Structures are given as C-alpha cells and as structure tokens.
Amino acid sequence: MRLSLFINPEKKLTVHTALDLLTLTENSDFTVHFSKRVWKLLAIQTLPPHCHLYETDEEALGTTQIAVAIGGDGTILKAASLLREIKIPLLCINSGKLGFLANIQRQHMKAALEDLMAEKYTLDRRYFLKAIVSDEITHFALNEFVFSRSGTVSMITLCAEYNGDFINKYWADGIIVSSPTGSTAYNLSTGGPIVAPETEVIVLTPISPHTLTTRPLVLPSSNFLTIKVDPADQKVVFSVDGSNHKLPSSNPVVRIKQSKDYIDLIKVPDQTYFDTLRNKLMWGADIRENE
To answer: Is 124 among the catalytic positions?
Structure first.
C-alpha cells in the first residue's frame, strides 16, 4: 500500500511521530512517499529503502493511495487543501495540542496502520465551502471564511443576504461563515453551535456584535450567502482557513455556499464524532460526577 506523508510545522514531536511512522512501515507492505521539503524537516541523511522522494508535496500526494498528515489541525487543513482535487483519503495523526481533525493520537498510530492494511476503516466525507469574491476569484475552505477588522479598534459593518434576501447589517468585530467541519473551531469559540459533519448547512456567526440580540444563524448550504463590505472603504481582513487574502478595494462582495469538492477523512474502528467531542472538548462533562 502506497502512503504519502505530509507534515508542516517544524516541531520536535511532529518530526518524532513522522520518524516513528517510517519505522513502523519498515519491512511491511507499505511504501512511504514524501517531498524534499518533508525530507528536510525529517533531517535524515539516507532515504530508507521503502521510501520514495519527490520534488513537491503535490507530486508525492498524487502518486499514492492514502495520504497521512501528522501535526495539528492547521497541518490537516493544509493537507486537505492540496488533496481537494487529488481525491485520495486522508489519515490524520495528532502531534499538536487539541487536534480535533487530527483525531488519531500518536500512541495509536501502529493500530491505525494495521487497520489500514486490513482495510478496517470507513470514509468520513467532508465538503468544502466555496467563496466567490466579486465574481472573479474563487477560494475553498474546509473550516471557515472569516471577515474581521484590520488595524483598528473600531468595529466594522457588514451586510448579509441569503439567496437574495436581506438578513441583517452586522456591526461587530467581524463575522465567521463556517462549514459543519469548522463548527468546532473558531465558530465554537465565539459562541456558535456545534453542527454534525454530515449536515448540509453553513453557519453565520458574528464576532463580538454590538447588538446583544444578534445571534448565530444556521442556513441551508445549497444557496448563496452573500457578504458585502458596506461602506466599502473599511479595512477588512478576509481569511480562508486561517490564511489572509485581500478583498477588492471597490465594492467587495463575497458569495459563499457549499462546494461539490470534498475530502475523505479516514475513520478507524471504534471512533465516532461524538467520541471526539467528549474526548477533545470535554463536551457534556460534569465535574460534579467526580465529587
């Protein structure tokens, strides 16, 4: 079985976990493929016999059956972005802090590899959101798009419409447009709802709104949610899964809906979304039970 290895941060635990993966796949039916960038991060002098080297991450990912991303959720998002068009499944191994997407702990990596070889896994399909900026540029996000103020302590004003109908004019620090996958990320920390991954909705959550009655809104993802910067001369940062992009200076309009593009996350046996909620977020925990 051909695996491609993707790591991003230069953290010791991530590198050690990746080296453990190479050791676990020695003398097996696995081959491991990775880019020269990853090889440099691993700092190994001699390429192991079961490993193959490529110029870029895209080339390495495009030659394999399954991708393995090691790191935190930021690493998973970057890997998912590269895999959006390649369409191979992604195994996510956590070597970061929370790791909600990277839900396989490093101490369970050996068992996860055994499940892969035995084909004891299922695929958890997650759809991207698509944002069309002023009918010119298209961005894709697995977690969220964020509109936030830039270089000022003043709030910004943003208008929202859904399928052509006016929703509200938000006076806030910004707004988050989240997918179900991203509902447990920035959306959750600002008071937005947790949404099951298979639900076909988008979540509109204001960031510190001036009006207390302005609450998060859940909308069907089949139609466009339109965000307008009004007035247009405001300094607004547009973020795509944590990466900042410039909006046009003249009448910026962003239309967002669910994309047809997706990433398949590998789910090993005895692992559910609600297990992850309880274990990672302490969801539903009651400290009184320990008294």
So the answer is: no
